[in-house]
Amino acid sequence: MLPYETSFHAYKASKLVFYLQLLLFSGLAFFLFLPLMRRTRTICLDTDWFYRRAGKALALRLSRGLGALRAGVMAILSSLWGSMGSGFDGLVGQQKRLAASWSIGISALWVLAFVVAYAVIYYLRAM
Hints:
Distance between the termini: 46 Å
Transmembrane segments: 16-37, 58-82, 102-124
Helix content: 55-70%
Structural class: mainly alpha
Shape: flat
Keywords: Membrane, Transmembrane, Transmembrane helix
Radius of gyration: 34 Å
Order of helices and strands: HHH
Strand content: under 5%
Largest sheet: none
Mean pLDDT: 84
């Protein structure tokens, strides 16, 4: 199968015996030391406790800061939205046109229109 000869043989008897011995003796060691791995009644303080606590505090502060930033941006956008007038009021909202459920046919039509537009632009650029 290879273009040149190799001298590697994956299933030599000596290699199989070696890996079987490795597997069997590691299993034997596991079962021999199994009684020593019983649960002890001690308190263990892992080092990840420190960065978990610091990470939680940092995430909380970032969340508060980003929440305040979001509230400010939303206030600016809502003031701009109110100054635009009521031109968009018929489109957005809970029961308006853009929030309504559309049939799958309309969605497929939009996808087809975008694919055709992309193909036309692609072929016009290739000319």
